Amino acid sequence: KEDQQLFKLTAEDIMISSEKVAHVQLNNPLEHALLILVTSGYSAVPVLDSKYRFKGIIGKSSILNEIMGLERFEIENLTTTTVEAAMQTDVPCLPKSADLLTCLKALIDHSFICLVDDKNYFDGIVTRRAVLEQLNQFFHV
Amino acid sequence: KEDQQLFKLTAEDIMISSEKVAHVQLNNPLEHALLILVTSGYSAVPVLDSKYRFKGIIGKSSILNEIMGLERFEIENLTTTTVEAAMQTDVPCLPKSADLLTCLKALIDHSFICLVDDKNYFDGIVTRRAVLEQLNQFFHV
Ligand SMILES: Nc1ncnc2c1ncn2[C@@H]1O[C@@H]2COP(=O)(O)O[C@H]3[C@@H](O)[C@H](n4cnc5c(N)ncnc54)O[C@@H]3COP(=O)(O)O[C@H]2[C@H]1O
Ligand SMILES: Nc1ncnc2c1ncn2[C@@H]1O[C@@H]2COP(=O)(O)O[C@H]3[C@@H](O)[C@H](n4cnc5c(N)ncnc54)O[C@@H]3COP(=O)(O)O[C@H]2[C@H]1O
Fold this sequence. Notes:
The structure is a homodimer.
Chain A: H1 2-8, H2 11-14, E1 16-17, E2 24-25, H3 30-40, E3 44-48, E4 54-59, H4 60-67, H5 77-80, H6 83-86, E5 93-94, H7 100-106, E6 112-116, E7 122-127, H8 128-139
The complex binds the ligand Nc1ncnc2c1ncn2[C@@H]1O[C@@H]2COP(=O)(O)O[C@H]3[C@@H](O)[C@H](n4cnc5c(N)ncnc54)O[C@@H]3COP(=O)(O)O[C@H]2[C@H]1O (2 copies).
């Protein structure tokens, strides 16, 4: 039955692997992160260190919060603030062996989940779109 | 069986109704839309006309594209450009009577779907989060 197919899938089967994921480095200035976000069109992307370990995520929301001062735009913050200072770190991660239902549960409150190995090296991301696509196929057979 | 419960749900059962949805008006300057997006934290929100009819959606991505000039930030565009000039209009809508599987299919490529009646009056939105939450409950019984 289809049930078996769906439950056998893992994050690795539906993930966007690391080389295809737009990301930034910890010590990049915010200006660089904003450029990556605007050219890719993504709301948020992972932040990695120089050894490719996962550190957090940075989005347009956090960058806008940094530059919208009370009176005016503080554009100079884009060159003086680093990604490390503005990123979110309290985000869940999963191993790429996680099953689809574990991914589904984690994606209720997050647009994407980062996949890391036991030494925190970055493997890729699983997105809401990928899980919704599998569920759509499951119900429409 | 649970199957029956899931398939009986409609968009109206899981939607965020219009009075709880952050939105902007067609003729607002972009500066106003940016303020709503930054204070609410949302990536994008619906655009309505003065009679509460749905017109499109406006997000941080479209606003940033308007103000990031080639050489420098063109902040003045925030006061001179209207929401109508920068919004996306080719987005799908559904009636609030749509069933859950119809919502699931539409949400594969959109973070949220606007719900409108037959005269295009805005009823609310259905989000990926709401559908993922129902599917999570369905599989975890
Ligand atoms: N260039 C594009 N082409 C086609 N569709 C696009 C698109 N950009 C965005 N979308 C659509 O809009 C949804 C929300 O994108 P958002 O950028 O807010 O949020 C994205 C983004 O923050 C991140 N993301 C997705 N793919 C990425 C990648 N290759 N590299 C880095 N981050 C990625 O994961 C979130 C969820 O992605 P998901 O695919 O579930 O959901 C995406 C997708 O359905
Ligand atoms: N203030 C908050 N409190 C708790 N969680 C929050 C939150 N803001 C964002 N999130 C979480 O982040 C996800 C992506 O939000 P985003 O703003 O990119 O994308 C949002 C936003 O553009 C829009 N949206 C959601 N609720 C809205 C509302 N009340 N008014 C206007 N737009 C809304 O629908 C998209 C999808 O929403 P969804 O709930 O599926 O998914 C949300 C939710 O899981």
